[in-house]
Amino acid sequence: QLSKRLQRLTSYIPSHAKTLSDIGSDHAYLPCYAYQKGLINRAIAGEVNEGPFQSALRTVQSLGLEKAISVRLGDGLAVIDRGETDVVVIAGMGGSLIRKILDEGSHKLTRETTLILQPNVASDTVREWLSSNGWTITNEDIIEEDGHIYEMLISSQTAQPVNLSEIECLMGPFLLQKQDKIFAKKWAIELQKVKNILKSLDKTEQTEEILQKKQQFNKKAALIERGLHWDN
Ligand code: SAM
Question: What PANTHER family would the database entry show (predicted)?
């Protein structure tokens, strides 16, 4: 049984997609499921680490999917040729690693590529990268599973890229509009964390550095409060 998070990610595979690459695939559960459900005709499971690479091979072999799913060992997008796949999934890692993989391998992506990204933390750095590199976020989702909240970003290169504002980078342009109750829960928790940090900063000596940090966190708290009462 595929996790709710991985299943939800596969629901964003465009209907015209034929080939998918799952970068950092670990057990290759997502590409195997997508193939078995007929969502794609072929897939590449990329892994940089030997252990997960072997796990991916085992899953593919045990399901007899060797012809449809190619398991490749390599760093990020280095495992695919330019334009080889319609969809690239990068899920279950931190936002800065996803950003690095996109940045280092952006020459492998084309105007036809759909990105399905699921940063575990720091989605804002992924949105910043997309926004400043000609990519448009076309949809977003947020789910909760086993006590974790996961954000999902779908993106492609549109004729007129949409630049994101600071609050959109932080909280997500679609998630702000949707105002899902999981979104409200996530940001209420984040706001509390920021307020706790501000309280502890108040208790230390008010040096120039501390004052600057307080300014940054006050700004973040104000953005979050605005996002939690979004009406435009
Ligand atoms: N994508 C799966 C998911 O969402 O459940 C697995 C996530 S797992 C936590 C992250 C995987 O990414 C690990 O198996 C790790 O080896 C792999 N990984 C980390 N950096 C990578 C890179 N630069 N290129 C390819 N794979 C990478």
Answer: TRNA (ADENINE(22)-N(1))-METHYLTRANSFERASE
Residue 79, pLDDT > 80, answer yes
| Selection from 106, 97, 222 nearest residue 170 by Cα | 222
Examine the pLDDT at 232 and tell me if it is beyond 70: no
Pocket of ligand 1 (CB under 6 A): 6, 23-26, 46-49, 52, 75-76, 91-93, 97, 101
Give residue 159's pLDDT.
81
Mutation pick for ligand 1 pocket among 6, 21, 44, 47 (CB with most ligand atoms within 8 Å): 47
- Which residue range is the domain that position 222 belongs to? 182-228
Query: Is residue 176 domain-resident?
Result: no
How does pLDDT run across 16-40, given as a tens digit for each residue? 999 999 999 999 999 999 999 999 9
- Give me the number of domains the chain comprises: 2
Torsion sign across C-alpha atoms 146, 48, 151, 219: positive
Domain shared by 13 and 81, yes or no: yes
Q: What ipTM was predicted for this assembly? A: 0.99
Q: How far is the CA of 140 from the centre of ligand 1 (A)?
A: 21
